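queue> pop job 88
queue> type: inverse folding (structure -> sequence)
queue> payload:
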């Protein structure tokens, strides 16, 4: 009797959107699962539709999209028709990622796996999920398609009715996927992680990429705050950290193994545990790792002490973004109280004393929260600029299950409750006469003016 074949195909789907930019975007959850499955003896085949270095692009003589020296950049894209719920939006709509013929060609190069695992990012990116599942079902009609990730977790019912997947997993996938595969194939897991101890998880499987020019790192899962607009508590059952030594060792290995110079942190709360933050930053310093570090996901200002700011500057944090969201004291309290203006000012002073120059520090401002007026955003932009930071306007994307969701549904002119495409931040889902799309354009222009 031959041994059972143990092949899986893992896929990061296309993105359909008005805009998408590779701000160090990798499907980290899927890469974590890939590493765990490899440890359990599975052979992993992998297609990342968003891989700008995918060999299929060269075969089709498609030039690599423009990248910056720090490896941010554009994805390959093709314009497509707007889906009907977005018809009224005066912007072009694209499919980002591999041309469909390249994807189908890649599928043909594999023989049927035991299961196909598909991840999902933003809730409003589900069309890419649908298209991938349609294509894999054409190629391998009998192979079960398993869907997980943010869309699957936050819009489970919608995914059940619309994705085409045979199985849908909500939340952390590690144990679920091993158990599901056991049920489907009879192959029992040999290496189970302990999800109360993140140090038992293997490092994300970046080796699946033929070429990689940055790595994304997660030092923790979840967040101790419960901000009303944020999905973190829905995606993570608790806030849990890795050991700083393990993180440092992992980054050092990536720099040597893949030759990467850019590391982006994906944490929701990177600095929130002060002792951890100091240990991590000192560890990076002592190890002599030479890389640029990026925090595209926003840091908690309260934690940017003088010491933390100096260490960040010393070890090479090149992208520093603080999450302020609003300078309105009332709204800061009403949305979760993660920061106030004095704490933000202090963080800015600490960062500037540490050597950051004005404009080098970005600050996220939320625009278009339910009932939020243009003046509040304007004031926040002015405040951020006066503190020496560069404002980044992030249009609010309403997320089902969050505390702010009902208010968002009530105030939105769009049918948010039935159509996840309408969660797209670009359409300004909660626009109203107090803050219109035209207002937003004016606010963006204002935010671009830096002293
Ligand atoms: C990193 C990040 C980004 C990165 C890129 C992410 C990417 N890969 O594309 C950047 C900085 C670019 C980004 C941008 C934005 N983001 Co963002 N981002 C995140 C963040 C912090 C982490 C995602 C992550 O990788 N987590 C770590 C991994 C390990 O977790 P995971 O992917 O969930 O995987 C686990 C499970 O889901 C599951 N799983 C995953 N895949 C699969 C597959 C199978 C088969 C199975 C079984 C299980 C499974 O198992 C995994 C391991 O346990 C999340 C918040 C969060 N905590 O998740 C927000 C989040 C996804 N972002 C969000 C938002 C709002 C945005 C922006 C719109 C912000 C703005 N207004 O500008 C932009 C939009 C970008 C665009 N249009 O291009 C929202 C979601 C909005 C929505 N409606 O879906 C989130 C949830 C944050 C929030 N505040 O609530 N983001």
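queue> result:
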């Amino acid at each position: 009797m031959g041994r059972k074949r143990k092949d899986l195909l893992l896929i990061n789907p296309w993105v359909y959107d008005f805009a998408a930019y590779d701000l160090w975007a990798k499907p980290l959850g899927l890469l974590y699962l890939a590493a765990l499955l490899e440890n359990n003896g599975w052979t992993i085949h992998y297609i990342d539709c968003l891989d700008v270095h995918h060999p299929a692009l060269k075969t089709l003589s498609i030039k690599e999209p423009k990248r910056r020296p720090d490896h941010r950049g554009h994805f390959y894209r093709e314009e497509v028709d707007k889906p009907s719920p977005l018809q009224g939006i005066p912007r072009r709509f694209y499919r980002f990622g591999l041309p469909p013929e390249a994807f189908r060609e890649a599928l043909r190069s594999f023989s049927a796996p035991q299961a196909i695992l598909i991840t999902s990012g933003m809730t409003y990116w589900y069309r890419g999920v649908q298209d991938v599942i349609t294509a894999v079902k054409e190629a391998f009609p009998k192979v079960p398609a398993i869907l997980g990730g943010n869309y699957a977790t936050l819009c489970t019912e919608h995914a059940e009715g619309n994705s085409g997947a045979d199985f849908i997993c909500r939340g952390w996938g590690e144990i679920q996927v091993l158990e599901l595969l056991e049920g489907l194939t009879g192959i029992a897991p040999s290496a189970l992680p302990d999800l109360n101890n993140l140090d038992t998880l293997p490092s994300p499987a970046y080796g699946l990429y033929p070429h990689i020019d940055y790595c994304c790192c997660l030092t923790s899962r979840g967040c101790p705050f419960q901000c009303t607009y944020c999905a973190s508590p829905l995606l993570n059952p608790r806030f849990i950290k890795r050991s700083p030594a393990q993180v440092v060792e992992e980054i050092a290995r990536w720099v040597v193994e893949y030759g990467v110079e850019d590391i982006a942190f994906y944490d929701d709360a990177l600095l929130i545990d002060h002792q951890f933050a100091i240990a991590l930053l000192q560890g990076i310093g002592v190890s002599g790792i030479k890389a640029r570090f990026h925090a595209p996901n926003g840091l908690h200002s309260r934690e940017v002490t003088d010491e933390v700011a100096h260490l960040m500057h010393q070890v090479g944090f090149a992208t520093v973004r603080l999450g302020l969201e609003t300078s309105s004291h009332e709204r800061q309290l009403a949305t979760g109280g993660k920061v106030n203006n004095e704490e933000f000012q202090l963080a800015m002073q600490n960062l500037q004393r540490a050597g950051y120059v004005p404009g080098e520090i970005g600050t996220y401002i939320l625009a278009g929260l339910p009932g939020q007026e243009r003046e509040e955003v304007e004031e926040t932009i002015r405040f951020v600029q006066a503190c020496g930071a560069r404002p980044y306007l992030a249009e609010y994307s309403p997320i089902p299950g969050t505390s702010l969701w009902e208010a968002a549904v009530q105030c939105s002119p769009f049918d948010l409750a039935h159509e996840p495409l309408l969660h797209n931040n670009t359409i300004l889902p909660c626009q109203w006469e107090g803050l219109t799309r035209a207002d937003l354009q004016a606010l963006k222009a204002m935010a671009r003016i830096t002293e």
